[in-house]
Amino acid sequence: SRAAAGALGQLYVEQKRYAEARALFQKLWDNDRSAREFEFGIAVLSVQMKDWATAESLFNDLKKASYGENGAVELYLAQIADEQGRYADAIERYKAVPEGERAWLAKLRIAAMMGKMGKVADARRYLSDLPAVTIDQRIQVRQAEAQLLRDANDNQGAYDVLVLALKEHPDSPELLYDTAMVAERIDRVDDAEKHLRRVVALKPDDAQALNALGYTLVDRTPRVAEGQALIERALKLSPDDPFILDSMGWALFRQGKYAEAEQYLRRAMKERPDAEIAAHLGEVLWAKGEHERAQEIWQSQLKINPDNAVLLETVRRLAR
Questions:
Q1: Across the chain, what does the average pLDDT equal?
Q2: Rounded distance, CA 278 to CA 266, Å?
Q3: Mind listing the pLDDT tens digit for each residue in 29-57?
Q4: pTM of the model
Q5: I want to staple 234 with a disulfide (CB 3.0 to 4.6 A). Which of 21, 107, 143, 207 is the partner?
Q6: What is the C-alpha separation between 103 and 107, in angstroms, rounded?
Q7: Of 154, 151, 215, residue with least CA distance to 180
């Protein structure tokens, strides 16, 4: 049954069993080459699996067949070039996204590509010339400009951009959140807490805001128990979120509860192998005296993320 197979494939996707889902969709597409929806599914799953060559080949085929919602295939092709560091190709592909709801996202990504090519000043001029019509678009332009500066390691510049934007949009949860994240990076922890508390007041059931505030208190202040209570609220709202699991593990570590911390951090790593989660898990293992296991986890992530600041700082501090 094609319908049953499709439903099973969707279940695999929800369970993040991408290889199994792709194999199933491949079988369905092989049986009926006119069923472009399965080809599209294979292409999207290939992106999830970072199989860029397969994804690009399939999306190019879908583009020739004029398949999909307006701009969807073009945007995927641009993102593939983006992920591979082919920034000039990515810019041309983002420009090719036809007008519609995806075109605005593509325009913002062009600025990011320019920044990655070292053309930060040009990218900022490009953003200032974008025809941002709605309030949301104006906010997104300022967020994009701040991200450009963050990527260029100019956190103070990013903070200044966001503070100016907040004067115009003082109750934007997105701007408040971004400003808090940059404030924490430049050691303005009080400002970070203030902005995150405002986000929580505006959106009391926002798991990400609760987690960010809780983690900031756990990591940057002595108020670990207060931070953990916020993280627990976030975890109830989003029990499988790897970053919230990571925060809970870090809160337990800060209280010396190494065995419990390890359990949460291993769950987080299983959900999302990530450099910062690896840094935390390794530090817990190091504190338990399991130095070899800690080194294995750090080194495996350093191969993938050799420039991650948190991971590098952890390794330098402990494994000297």
A1: 95
A2: 9
A3: 999 998 899 999 999 999 999 999 999 99
A4: 0.87
A5: 207
A6: 6
A7: 215
For residue 174, what are its two tokens?
Answer: 């997105």
Assess contact for 175 and 165: CB atoms under 8 A: yes
Measuring CA to CA, how many Å separate 51 from each of 57, 88, 189, 270, 301?
10, 20, 40, 20, 19
Secondary structure (DSSP) of 100-151: SHHHHHHHHHHHHHHHHTT-HHHHHHHHHHS---SHHHHHHHHHHHHHHHHH
| DSSP assignment of 189-237 | HHHHHHHHHHHHHH-TT-HHHHHHHHHHHHHHSS-HHHHHHHHHHHHHH
The token pair that represents 319 in the structure block: 């494994």
Contacts 24+ apart (CB under 8 A), 183-191: 183/159, 184/216, 184/220, 185/150, 185/155, 186/155, 186/156, 186/159, 188/159, 189/216, 189/220, 189/221
Residue pointed to by tokens 């508390």: 197
Query: End-to-end CA distance of the chain, in Å?
Result: 59
How far apart are the C-alpha atoms of 80 and 288, rounded to whole Å? Answer: 41
> Cα(288)–Cα(237) distance, rounded to whole angstroms?
31
| pLDDT, tens only, 114-158 | 999 999 999 999 999 999 999 999 999 999 999 999 999 999 999
Gap between the Cα atoms of 59 and 57, Å rounded: 6
Collapsed DSSP state (helix, strand, coil) of residue 257? coil
The amino acid occupying position 243 is F
Confirm if 288 and 262 have CB atoms less than 8 A apart. yes
Label each residue of 258-308 as H, E or C. HHHHHHHHHHHHHHCCCHHHHHHHHHHHHHCCCHHHHHHHHHHHHHHCCCC
Instruction: Render pLDDT for 58-110 as a digit per residue (tens, 0 to 9).
Output: 999 999 999 989 999 999 999 999 999 999 999 999 999 999 889 999 999 99
